[in-house]
Design brief:
The complex is a heterodimer of chains A (about 375) and B (about 200).
Chain A: H1 2-7, H2 19-30, E1 40-43, E2 46-49, E3 60-63, E4 69-71, E5 77-86, E6 92-100, E7 112-116, E8 123-126, E9 143-145, E10 166-168, E11 178-183, H3 188-191, E12 197-205, E13 211-212, E14 224-233, E15 256-259, E16 273-275, E17 281-288, E18 293-300, E19 308-313, E20 316-324, E21 327-329, E22 334-340, E23 347-355, E24 362-369, E25 371-373
Parallel strand pairs in A: 3-14, 4-7, 5-8, 7-12, 14-17, 16-25
Antiparallel strand pairs in A: 1-2, 5-6, 8-10, 9-11, 11-12, 12-13, 14-15, 17-22, 18-21, 18-23, 19-20, 19-22, 23-24, 23-25
Chain B: H1 2-14, H2 17-21, H3 25-29, E1 43-44, E2 47-48, E3 52-59, E4 65-69, E5 74-80, E6 87-94, H4 97-112, E7 123-130, E8 137-142, H5 149-160, H6 183-186, H7 193-198
Antiparallel strand pairs in B: 1-2, 3-4, 3-7, 4-5, 5-6, 7-8
Helix pairs in contact in B: 4-5
The chains are: A mainly beta (about 375), B alpha+beta (about 200).
């Protein structure tokens, strides 16, 4: 019971549950009347509903920037909308983002798509009202980056993908359990930078088709799941005249660095703050949509590095897990790591340091901090 | 016999005439139909590819309509409802070889021809053509009955689409506007059309 209560102690989302409500919810959970995945919550004024199938491991997804979590097999429809973000220096930057049709929860990154092993993806892209470039770079697609799908489903216009809206249908086997990503493949140099991306997570399933919360098909279970979508922003790419074959695209000079769509310039102003139970295991899914290099670390309040274990790279299990205190993640790469929290309460600071691909130099404001309370 | 003749023709271009004389019909049928020039951009992975063509078009009060041809010769169209918020017609179909040959020819002519940008019209379109390995062609023009390569290409594509696009009569004088924008955005667009297109026009 304690474990259940701790998992639904929703202060990790900044909305503490009252003891009575938590206890009632716990009783309902035990009685099987409420599934963890059907539980909806509200954070920073937006509603996020987990649509994971089944109640397998009962893990809690923490953080993730408040984006929707959609089961890719349940027929969701994504649309594309323009949003504006004000950066730390007051600059206003336009983004094009995927969002779930009808949710009004349009933010950076796009919704997390989840798909169980052996289940058939069935999701749609509707480009009505979408911001677009002028022809011949009009329209958008969804490219499941890292998943080996049929060419007709891979969203690559150069090999025939529809750009004015499409349905995507494919399935993957157990080798793919782990983190991947999706992004628009129309004029990718522009559209990826504009924010058209999100995490795509392949989940192991049990005999009933419920998601099982393991880091890999045969990997250990986790208590919490935390998506980290890494990205960088060169504001010149976001300007109205940065379209077509603009010479802007000949160079890349990022100025803003993000985790889950947020800057996190210091430990006191982190990109995201989450809370987990002491002693719990936390899976951190690093989804490298950044167009630069990056080094991921976890440090405590005194700056000491904490070790973590890498299980998957690019969604595929390593021959043997690697215990490290630092790892580099390159553009287009994903990595699934796990960390076990101590038994006493404290705060750790997972962080990513963005570096130039040319010379490895750390960018100004290039370290993005998050905070993990336990 | 036809297969052997074809084989001879293909092989002759490759300089293997003598070998071709001994070819059987079955062997000849296996000769891949691909060009001898390895730098021919018309083939990719042994299959023909076509220019990417896109038209955004609208009347000033009407929705943003789109017609596109993909690299593998698939025609796509998206015609929204009058308010631009819901789908009126939407479809895809693979064009026939004859249709694609004609469209490719028209696209090539359009790419080479001078653009007719700048005129005002009741129906405006933005055209883009991308042949692999060549600079993009873009044109912002009014759709009229006059012959221009871009108008002819547009007329041909419209005939291939089974649905009629919504082009409401806006009862306004001919005007220049950006059909790639949504109707509500057209009147809010602060950037003059000439500036907007000058930045990308070739």
């Amino acid at each position: 019971m304690g474990a259940i209560f701790s998992r639904f102690e929703d202060s990790r989302r900044g909305w503490p549950l009252s003891g009575l409500f938590a206890m009632t919810l716990g009783v309902l959970l035990v009685a099987g009347l409420v599934s963890p995945e059907s539980f909806a919550w509200s954070r920073t004024g937006s509603t996020t509903t987990s649509t994971s199938m089944g109640g397998g491991g009962g893990e809690m997804m923490i953080g993730g920037g408040g984006t929707d979590v959609l089961n890719a097999a349940n027929g969701p429809t994504l649309v594309v909308r323009q949003i504006n973000k004000t950066m730390h220096d007051g600059a206003n930057v336009k983004f094009w983002v995927f969002c779930a049709s009808g949710s009004n929860n349009c933010r950076l990154p796009g919704p997390t798509l989840e798909l169980g092993v052996g289940q058939t993806a069935n999701f749609n892209l509707n480009v009505m009202m979408a911001p677009q470039e002028m022809p011949p770079y009009q329209g958008h697609t969804i490219h499941p980056h890292g998943l080996d799908v049929q060419q007709s489903e891979d969203g690559v216009p150069e090999t025939g993908a529809a750009v004015l809206g499409d349905n995507y249908s494919f399935h993957v086997d157990s080798r793919y359990v782990g983190s991947h990503m999706y992004h628009c493949h129309v004029h990718t140099v522009k559209h990826l930078e504009m924010g058209m991306y999100g995490a795509f997570v392949v989940k192991a399933v049990d005999n009933l088709g419920n998601f099982v919360n393991v880091i890999d098909q045969n990997g250990p279970a986790y208590d919490y799941e935390w998506n980290w979508v890494l990205s960088a922003v060169d504001p010149a790419y976001h300007a109205d005249n940065a379209v077509g074959d603009s010479t802007v695209f000949a160079d890349y000079n990022p100025k803003y660095f993000l985790v889950n769509g947020n800057e996190g310039l210091s430990k006191t102003a982190p990109a995201e703050t989450v809370t987990a139970a002491t002693g719990a295991t936390v899976a951190i899914r690093l989804v490298g949509i950044h167009s630069v290099d990056g080094t991921f670390q976890i440090k405590d309040a005194s700056g000491a590095s904490k070790s973590f274990v890498i299980y998957n790279r690019d969604g595929f299990a390593l021959p043997s897990p690697q215990t490290v205190t630092s790892t580099d993640i390159t553009p287009g790469q994903t990595m699934d790591v796990m960390v076990t929290l101590p038994g006493t309460s404290s705060s750790w600071y997972p962080q990513i340091t963005y570096k130039s691909l040319r010379n490895g130099a750390v960018y100004t404001n290039g370290t993005v901090y998050a905070r993990l309370n336990f | 016999m036809l297969g052997v003749q074809t084989a001879v023709g293909v092989m002759a271009r490759r300089g293997f005439v003598v070998l071709a004389l001994t070819a059987t019909g079955a062997w000849a049928d296996t000769v891949p139909e691909k060009p001898s020039d390895p730098f021919d951009y018309s083939y990719c992975g042994g299959k023909p590819v076509y220019p990417v063509i896109g038209y955004n078009f609208a009347t000033v009060c009407g929705p943003r309509n789109q017609i596109a041809v993909g690299r593998r010769g698939q025609l796509m169209w998206l015609f929204p409802s009058a308010d631009g918020r819901t789908m009126l017609h939407h479809g895809m179909r693979k064009l026939s070889a004859d249709e694609l040959n004609r469209i490719s020819l028209l696209a090539e002519v359009t790419q080479l021809a001078a653009s007719t940008d700048g005129a005002a019209g009741h129906v405006m379109y933005d055209l883009g053509i991308n042949f692999s390995g060549r600079p993009n062609k873009r044109e912002h023009a009014a759709f009229t009955a006059d012959y221009t390569p871009a108008n002819e290409l547009f007329r041909t594509l419209l005939k291939l689409v089974p649905d009629a696009p919504p082009l409401p009569d806006c009862a306004e004088a001919a005007t220049d506007f950006d059909p790639t924008l949504m109707p509500a955005q057209r009147h809010l667009d602060p950037q003059p059309m000439t500036d907007r297109h000058a930045s990308i026009r070739r």
